[in-house]
Design a protein that fits this description.
Shape: globular
Order of helices and strands: EEEEEEHHEHEEEHEHEHEHEHHHHHEEEE
Radius of gyration: 21 Å
Oligomer: single chain
Largest sheet: 9 strands, mixed
Helix content: 25-40%
Distance between the termini: 46 Å
Number of helices: 12
Length: 435
């Protein structure tokens, strides 16, 4: 499902070093030209570029690197980012204030270089619509609305007090973060309701997790039969994708065999699952930011910290092996487990575990576009694609960390519309027709 942005604009980027997202070698002195619909009409060497057209905004990149707009395929943009006050915020904060905070998070994410994001529970459909219609600025959104878990599973937020702040609509400012399903029929009906409500993707919990006290990543979540029912309903409705929270091996196997579109986290993934995932056209979204940025003993319960530390080496070993095996990988961070606005630090962590910088860039652009079914329009800088692009200072192939600092992302455009510009006034001009 293509999520268009309301505004579009003609744009020309000159004097750029282009990394186009296809894996081709960087092209020095490149020019990118987009028409008034925000579609790229030319992306190539300056020597062959069409002439400037009066009235079209021109960006002089000053020799900086231009890349496709990036994706973050696993975020929770409607959840509070203050871990210590997470529960309190969900219980006592005015829902309108929560909404306003989310608009700030969306803009921060866009400014970091992420022009498209997939929210895997907690954010209402209205935010997607508001961005599409130009009411607010943020990444294009695909939303799951809520996730599906079994009673006592990773998504069950029942507290000792009897309150369930994330699975009880009366207490949740936004959409319920999780819907509990315990039979095949309940899984099927819940999926139908989500599709009715406008979900772009269905998220299931195939295993336990880190932040849930009563379970462990090795615990299995929904059964294979329940997952199969979800996938069947998604298939019957224009082939909607299904994303599986899956950390332990048993649950990963069940999800992959069931035919999910993506394995989220995949901390214990093995060679067999990597191969089967690739054969079935699925993707691994390893969310390494949760490991590298999401561990702070001072802000975590002891049980949560110990669980994270126990899985740290397991995760690094298995994801490194998956990278070496050429697993199909897309970029995701699980923010706010990792801080909002730092999505592109995930590229550094992929490289740290053995991925080549160019391959990490492809994971965050072309591969992520394929996962979201948007590869016809996004993910690379090629003729016919939408002009979602960023300009960054530094050489990300020589030092991938430059992309992880939003200050180095000096310009962000969506469909030709400039959303962020840190370049000098003279670097962005609009030629006028001669008298």
């Amino acid at each position: 499902m293509m999520a268009n942005i309301e505004a579009s604009a003609a744009l020309r980027v000159e004097n750029a070093r282009m990394i186009d997202g296809t894996g081709a070698e960087p092209l020095p002195n490149a020019v990118i030209v987009a028409d008034e619909s925000g579609r790229i009409q030319y992306a190539g060497p300056a020597a062959s570029a069409p002439p400037r057209v009066p009235g079209v905004q021109v960006v002089d990149a000053g020799g900086r690197t231009v890349l496709p707009g990036f994706f973050d395929c696993h975020v929770h943009l409607g959840l509070p980012d203050d871990k210590q006050n997470f529960l309190i915020a969900r219980l006592v904060e005015d829902p309108l204030l929560t909404s306003l905070r989310s608009t700030q998070v969306l803009k921060k994410t866009l400014d970091s270089g992420v022009t498209t994001a997939r929210d895997l529970c907690g954010l209402p459909v209205a935010f997607r619509t508001a961005i599409e219609q130009g009411v607010i600025e943020g990444p294009r959104l695909h939303v799951a609305i809520t996730s599906l878990s079994h009673t006592g599973g990773h998504g069950d937020s029942m507290l000792p007090s009897g309150l369930a702040p994330f699975t009880d609509g009366a207490l949740t400012p936004f959409s319920d973060a999780c819907t509990l399903v315990d039979t095949v029929d309940e899984a099927r009906v819940a999926t139908r309701r989500l599709l009715r409500d406008g979900a772009d993707v269905i998220k299931v919990h195939a295993t336990g997790g880190m932040a849930s006290r009563g379970d462990d990543p090795d615990d299995e979540g929904l059964t294979e039969e329940e997952i199969a029912a979800v996938i069947d309903e998604a298939r019957r409705h224009r082939g909607r994708p299904v994303a599986a929270h899956a950390q332990g091996l048993a649950g990963i196997r069940a999800a992959v065999r069931g035919g999910v579109t993506s394995i989220e986290h995949g901390y214990a993934i093995d060679a067999e699952c990597v191969d089967l995932l690739g054969e079935r056209g699925g993707f691994l979204v390893p969310t390494l930011s949760t490991l590298y940025l999401g561990v702070d003993k001072k802000k975590m319960s002891e049980w949560h910290y110990q669980k994270r530390m126990r899985w740290a080496s397991i995760t690094k070993e298995n994801i490194a092996a998956a990278i070496a095996r050429k697993a199909p990988i897309a970029l995701g961070t699980d923010s706010p487990v990792a801080p909002f606005g730092e999505s592109l630090k995930e590229l550094t962590f992929l490289v740290d575990l053995g991925m080549a910088p160019m391959d990490a860039i492809i994971a965050g652009t072309r591969s992520s576009a394929r996962l979201l079914g948007l590869a016809d329009d996004l993910g690379t800088l090629e003729k016919g694609k939408l002009a979602d692009l960023i300009v960054c200072s530094g050489d990300p192939l020589g030092d991938i960390t430059v992309l992880g600092d939003a200050a180095n992302v000096v310009l962000v455009a969506q469909q030709g519309v400039i959303r962020k510009n840190l370049l000098s006034h003279d670097a962005v001009t609009t030629p006028i027709a001669s008298a």
